[in-house]
Structures are given as C-alpha cells and as structure tokens.
Amino acid sequence: MTNRPDLPPEIARRRTFAIIAHPDAGKTTLTEKFLLFGGAIQMAGQVRAKGEARRTRSDFMKMEQDRGISVSASAMSFDFDRYRFNLVDTPGHSDFSEDTYRTLTAVDAAIMVIDGAKGVESQTRKLFEVCRMRDLPILTFCNKMDRESRDTFEIIDEIQENLAIDVAPASWPIGSGRDFLGCYDLLHDRLELMDRADRNRVADSIKISGLDDPKLAEHIPADQLAKLREEVEMARELLPAFDRKSFLEGHMTPIWFGSAINSFGVKELMVGIGEFGPQPQPQNSADRKISPEEKSVTGFVFKVQANMDPKHRDRVAFVRLASGHFERGMKLTHVRSKKPMAVTNPVLFLAADRELAEEAWAGDIIGIPNHGQLRIGDALTEGEGLRFTGIPSFAPELLQSVRATDPMKAKHLEKALMQFAEEGAAKVFKPMIGSGFIVGVVGALQFEVLASRIEIEYGIPVRFEGSQFTSARWVAGPRDKVEAFVNNNKGHIAQDHDGDMVYLTRLQWDIDRVARDHPELRLTATKEMMV
User: Positive or negative, the Cα torsion across 65, 70, 71, 73?
Assistant: First the structure.
C-alpha cells in the first residue's frame, strides 16, 4: 500500500463497499439511512414517493416488497461529505448467497451489521469467511441498541472468538434497551445523544474534552455516567486501539453502536467509512494486476439484472470500473466476443431511480443496458484482452426439473430460463437425453422467486418438480477424454447455458467413482466465470 502513487483526487474520494448481514439484522434500514444522510432521499422509506411511502427504495422486485427481504443486490451511488459512496446492497437471505459472493468481488470493503441481541449469526459467519478469503477490510455496526441487547463486552468477545478478528470500539453505547441514551464517540471525544421523537433527524453531537468533562453530567444520569466511565476505562485497557493499517489488511474491525431505525450511529459510521475506508484497490486479472490510476478504462461485469423495467425487456449489466476515467459514448472492447461496444446510455443508480452517467471513475459501479451481450465475468477494456479472475460460479445444491403448464409455451420458457441463467439467478442444465430443463439453485427460496418472476415477467406459469439428480459437477480435462466420457454416460450428462459439460448424479459415490476411474478428468464444484 505504501509505495503506490497517489490516486487522482476523483478516484481517491471514492468508497465502494457492500453491506453484509444475517436476514433481519437491519441491513435494508441501514441502506435507507445512508441514502437519507447522503441527501439522496428526503425521508427514509420513500424517494419522493407518495403512495409507496412505506416501501423501501432499494428493494424493487415485487417479491422483495411483499416479503420485506432483499433477494437481489442493488447498487447505489451518492455523495456524502467530500466522498462519493458506491454502496452495494446484498441479499441477506442465505438462499441467495451466490449473488452475494459475486457482489463481494466488486467492492473494496464491507460493513457487517449485527443485531445487538443476537450477536454473530450463521449467515454473518458465512459471509465473513468470503470477506476473509478476499482480505476485505470490514467495519462493524451493532444495530438495534434501542431494544434489549446483550452486554457490550459480550458482543465484542463473540465477534473476536467467532470470527478471529481484533475488534476496536469506535463508539461506546450508553445504556441499552429503554435506557439507551446514545453513544460516546471514542475516536473524536464526542457525546452523541439519540432523539427518539424524530427518526429522520441526525443525532445531537456535543463536543467534550474526555470523560472527566463536567458537561457530561448535564446530559447523562449519574449512575449511567459512572458505568460509562468504568466500561470505557476497561475497554481501553483490554481492547486494542484502532489501527488503520491493521484494519486495511483485514485483521481488525472497528465497531460502532447504534439504532438504524432511529437514524442513530449511522452518520458516525459513514464518517468512519470516509475517513478510514480504502480507496479503490487494484483488481486481479489472469495476466497482471490492474491499478485504478491507469489511464485506459477497464471494468468487469459482476451482476446482470433482467427486467428491471418490466415495460421494456431490458437487462442491465452492473460493471465495476477497475481503472481509468469513463465518459459516456466511449467505445469499449467486449473481450469475450472481441467486438467493440459503444456505451451510449450508461446509468448510475439511486435506489430504484436511475440517471444517465455522463462520466465515471475507477471504483464506480455503472449499469449498462443491453440485450444479452453482457454476462457475469465479462471484461470491457479499451482494446486489451484482459480476463478478470476470482468471480466464482458455484455448483447448485438443489436440482429440480421445470415445465411450462401450457406446452405451447415451451419455447418461451427456454428463452426465459436462459435469461435467468445469464443473470446468475440460477443454473440451467439441458440434459442430453430427454426434453425439458433442470434448474439448479443454492437455496429453496430461489425456486419460489424464479417461478414468480417467470410468471410476472414472461407470463408463463411453470411447475417445478423433483429431479432424479441431486448434484452437478463441471467436467474438465483433455478434449478426447471428455468426449469419450460423455458418450459413455449420456444419461448423466447435461450442458449449462455456456455449453460446458456437466455431470449430474444422485450419489457422492458416483463422483468418487469417476475420480477413481478417470484420473485425467476433473469434476469441479465451482467454475470461474471467465471468458
């Protein structure tokens, strides 16, 4: 980090991060408040909307609004202070973890939201592991402190033990549940008081000089003040002080306490991201590292969202810019097809609203509307044949066959399934023998989402039925050996939407047998989404 040249100011002010959490920890609420403080919306729960005022704006799919969960990762850009934040909201539901894994390839840092009463939950642990694999710096926000929550030291201990990471308190809560008054900002010696009356108001901030300042007694009852002084003294003795280098290397996480629904603690967290968060980082490609300050524009697609606007069958590819200064109308090379693409109408997202992006810099996330040319893992460059690495595709854990209830619509169904496969919402396998398709997903809820989306977006009612297969593995190896294997096992072979061979089976024993009998073949559970 030390010997890299200074980034151009426009790139240096960008902060690109994702929010990860277990479902119900308050991730979508926190996203809302970020937009509120960034001046992007006037009132949380609405973006200049009347009838939809109680709906959150980062969940635009009908099912997300009905169920109150986020199932697709949406990207939002807004300014705060002197920084430009690119926030990627990820699905918290474990059934959509693959979308989340891929999203984490496009960000430079993550905010982990945990519930003050429940602590570190299973999905948080899983997502944290992915951040650990990518060495992403993590900031922690302990939410829901205005409800009955656990002891502060207990929460910090649990994070340290479960996630094996040092925790440095950036703020310290004063009371909890009904007695929660606010926080003491340890990094700036400030007292932050929560206003319970107006949820959309920023907390009052009182500048004090240390915990012995007599001004504290005017705002905090004596017993709570004594407890605060004692706890902060213990925390300073027992817990490490915040060290930015250790944080950027992924060994330490600063923790803020607050209540997102009451807009409390959110602004301090945002200031923390601006002050301490990493600038856009170099990205990995097959041949070399790509630095953000390079002059030529490069970027990769980490997500494709179909039918964001149901009136037009549009598909938007979310592109993370890895280097350069992009301007609208530029011609970029689509590396997989080696064809030039004129990017005439790139969009920036503000929750469900979008606006044309006249320009964008390394670190930004832009959307490129297209009709199926762009897929996950695709690279866009100014001519260089780059292949970005590290965007995984996972073997599905659940397989079901799918049929249109109206046989006349079978052709339309094929088109719809291919769209979802390219979007990364599901794996679609076409068996060599028999008709129909087998759809593979990571979690059962995805079948519901797919069925509802195929019906709403394409007008095709479908039925998912159990399949005779339970697992899928990609087959790789010398071409002649693969062809011989395919010919001998036609009943078990299918092709994915890229045309790659997939071995379908019911038993782990079959997979082990192939590995034993065909040492020259590789059966893999992941596939790099590379061109």
Answer: positive
Q: What is the largest CA-CA distance in the chain?
A: 83
Nearest partner of 74 among 297, 311, 354, judged by Cα: 354
| Cα–Cα dist 515/509, whole Å | 10
Q: How many helices (H) and strands (E) does the chain have?
A: 14, 33
| CA distance linking residue 4 with residue 241, whole number of Å | 26
Over the stretch 417-468, which tens digit does the pLDDT of each residue have? Answer: 888 887 777 889 999 887 788 998 877 777 888 888 888 888 889 988 888 8
Burial 70-89 (b: 16+ CB within 10 A, else e): bbbbbbbbbebeebbbbbbb
Which letter, b or e, does each residue of 434-456 get, where b requires 16 or more Cβ atoms within 10 Å of its Cβ?
eebbbbbbbbebbbebbbebbee
Which pTM was predicted?
A: 0.74
The pair of three-digit structure tokens given for residue 199, joined into one six-digit string: 């949820």
In 119-241, which residue ranges form alpha helices assigned H by DSSP?
A: 122-133, 152-163, 215-219, 222-238
Task: Give the position of tokens 């396998």.
Answer: 429
pLDDT at 188: 83
pLDDT in tens, 290-303: 888 889 999 998 88
The residues that bridge with 370 in the sheet, in sequence order, are 315
pLDDT at 471 over 90: no
